[in-house]
Amino acid sequence: MLELGMKHCVETLVTEENTAAKVGSGALMVFGTPYMAALMENAALTLMAATLPEGKGSVGTALNISHSSPTPIGMKVRAEAEVTNISANGKIVDFKVSAYDEAGLIGEGTHQRAIIDNERFMAKTNSKLNK
Questions:
Q1: How far apart are CA 48 and CA 65, in angstroms?
Q2: Catalytic site residue 111?
Q3: Which of 40, 41, 74, 116 is the most buried (most CB within 10 A)?
Q4: Statement: the pTM of the whole predicted model exceeds 0.85
Q5: 8 classed as catalytic
Q6: Any residues with CB less than 8 A from the CB of 10 and at least 6 apart, and which?
Q7: pLDDT digits (tens, 9 = 90+) for 6-57
Q8: 8: phi > 0 → left, psi -120 to 50 → alpha, else beta; which?
Q9: Catalytically annotated residue among 8, 12, 19, 41
Q10: Which one of 33, 51, 84, 110 is the catalytic residue?
Q11: Distance of alpha carbon 33 from alpha carbon 26, whole angstroms
Q12: Where does the chain have alpha helices with state H?
């Protein structure tokens, strides 16, 4: 069961493949902001997935972050998500997210996820193909 204060961390190594230059969000060979955002979302997703019943999942609905410090190729980066609010109906979950490299804080912000029924969500998504 998901509870306020629960935390989860995930980590990655900065390589040429996850730089700003590679993804096109910048021109330098430093950890790209889109990859930092994805790592933050993954920390929240992974935390929620461990608490959801079969057939349920979650999707990101909001992300508000800052990327305050560059990270070079070769350094490890970890992202942490902490549950800060669960809506009254239990379907919307808010997180504080932060990211760190081996030298300290590199980014932080908030993230929100909605609990969904996987099959119904995909049926609705794929119905767009029939229009």
A1: 20
A2: no
A3: 40
A4: yes
A5: no
A6: 39, 42, 43, 46, 78, 79
A7: 999 999 999 999 999 999 999 999 999 999 999 999 999 999 999 999 999 9
A8: beta
A9: 41
A10: 33
A11: 9
A12: 20-23, 33-49, 118-126
